[in-house]
Amino acid sequence: MASVNLFLQTVLFTASSILFLSSILLLPETTESPFTMSSQNSEHINDKPTLGHNELSRQMTLQLSPDQYERLFFQPSAPKGDLAKRLGTSSSLSPTPHPLSSLATGNPTLVGVVGFLVPFSSTIFCLLQFQGSKPSSIAGVSGTFYFFGGITMIIAGIAEFILGNSFPMAVFIIYGCHWVNLGYVNDALHAIVASYATGREPGALAQLYNAVQGHYNIVMTLITFVFLCGSLRINVPFVIVFFGLVFCFSFLAAGHYHLEYDPTVTVLEHAVYYFKIAGGFGLVSVITGWYLVSS
Predict the structure, then answer these.
(1) pTM score of the predicted model
(2) What SS3 class is residue 268?
(3) Is the dihedral angle over the CA atoms 256, 140, 279, 176 positive or is it negative?
(4) Residue whose C-alpha is closest to residue 4's, from 282, 277, 281, 274
(5) What pLDDT score does 235 carry?
């Protein structure tokens, strides 16, 4: 009963956080930006006499669409220079075409998506225990976390930054850093997980380790939900990818919190069950992601 209550508290915390972010992120159709103009040597303010200052103040309201608002604050100017022209294609993750798209010779989005899918697919197969693998088997593919997930995605994010595509830049660099972090933690060379071992209890079952991992996956759930809201303006496949990732990180957090509460053999079986559910949602994102690459 206590474990069920803990899981329900985790789900309620995630849901309340998602609702709070959605209330902030959902913008209205138009955004009003007031601008004030003033001129000297006048005798009235709003058709009323002044008391010592000759000044006229006039209020103006400028209507901006959500697309114009985003371009004003997140993409204020077009990229410049020869490098931008060489990479000048508009990203498929960008909701608006880039003005240099006619000069395109390459698209960094494909590299970033493949860099994400290679380590993510391997991780999902381990969570689903394909061919005898286990969740702890991801230590064997930590190299893909560094090179495919880390280096490849960060390079793609820098290329998107050069193009002025804010949304794909944020996605690739943040998830690239996520893979570097995951590879570093699970790398046997650094022995971070083993450092939590106490007596006969391995580090992967330690309460302190699983509590921190649960916190981290909750944060990744919130970040992914922000990206889910941003993908609503792009296309359906990207929405499905981020939708599956939201629940994947959520159930990973639930599994780690379950182990943190009571790291016994019985609880371990329940936690592995949560990891399998996370792998199921992740598999939806994997299939949709490879569909995007092949198309």
Answers:
(1) 0.65
(2) helix
(3) positive
(4) 274
(5) 84
